[in-house]
Specification:
By secondary structure, this protein is α/β, with parallel strands linked by helices. It contains 8 helices and 12 strands. It has one domain: Alpha-Beta Barrel (TIM Barrel), CATH 3.20.20.70. Bound molecules: iron/sulfur cluster (SF4).
Length: 261
């Protein structure tokens, strides 16, 4: 008889905390955020470059919203993360759990085991934020997700190009009847031809999928300045995209206005 020892999966985390979602379809709702370390993209506008590599430690909020962080070593065992989420889960406070990063889908083997457990103990819906470039990994965790926000990476704005992967990604979410929306970060350098192409791509899956144009929050420290688009640009781009998709909303990062994390 072979003695198979079950491998307990670990995650590399940045932080866990409770906050108000500042972007996309869930804006204004209260979520437990699990920010995973590691990202394989290098977007020009990235405001989370501290997530690109796994740090030695992560910070875990003790009481929801109090920012009373405790420091733990990475990697983190699954059972510990479940405990921390249970501790955050004050009855009635949270609308959902947000998987964010970095790129959470780089933790797919962990998520396959973690998500059913955390759903069971909290009963909260699970929301995934992803760069939308790893449809194969998405397919493995689809049954455990309730909603997905996919960042559409325009080459002119992000420096990344993942058209085919984005198409597969949105189609998978739509076929699985998940609540899905697309977020597109726009800057002064955004190319309207790419916006039109992205609108057509979304519309080919369904013109009902909401699209959020998110004017970039200027990054002053960047060697190549990333500047917010002008009001004129944003008005034109919304009109352009609405020829193809029904719901195009322009929403900046509201959590930064609230001075939140
Ligand atoms: S996908 Fe997100 S975390 Fe990764 S580089 Fe782009 S903006 Fe930064």
């Amino acid at each position: 008889m072979t003695n198979k020892t079950a491998i307990t999966p670990n995650a590399r985390l940045i932080e866990v905390f409770s906050a108000i979602q500042g972007e996309g379809l869930n804006v204004g709702t209260r979520q437990i955020f699990i920010r995973f370390a590691l990202c394989d993209l290098r977007c020009h506008f990235c405001d989370s470059s501290h997530t690109w590599d796994a740090p030695d430690n992560c910070r875990i909020e003790r009481s929801p919203g109090l920012r009373d962080f405790e420091i733990y070593s990475n990697p983190v065992p699954l059972s510990m993360l479940v405990e921390w989420i249970e501790r955050q889960n004050v009855p009635g406070l949270h609308d959902s759990i947000s998987l964010t990063g970095g790129e959470p889908l780089l933790h797919t083997p962990f998520l396959i085991q973690f998500l059913p457990k955390v759903r069971l103990v909290t009963g909260l819906p699970i929301y995934l934020e992803s760069g939308g470039h790893r449809p194969e990994q998405l397919a493995m965790i689809l049954p455990y997700l309730d909603s997905v926000g996919m960042d559409f990476k325009l080459p002119s704005t992000s420096g990344e190009s993942h058209w085919q992967e984005h198409e597969k990604f949105i189609q998978l979410c739509y076929n699985a009847h998940l609540e899905v929306f697309v977020k597109i970060i726009v800057s002064q350098k955004t190319d309207p031809i790419e916006l039109e192409r992205s609108a057509l791509l979304v519309a080919a899956v369904s013109p009902e999928i909401p699209v959020f144009l998110q004017p970039v929050t200027p990054i002053e420290s960047s060697p190549t300045p990333v500047l917010a688009p002008s009001p004129h640009q944003v008005l034109n781009w919304q009109a352009l995209m609405k020829q193809f998709v029904k719901h195009v909303r322009v929403v900046p990062q509201t959590h930064k206005m609230l001075n939140q994390l």
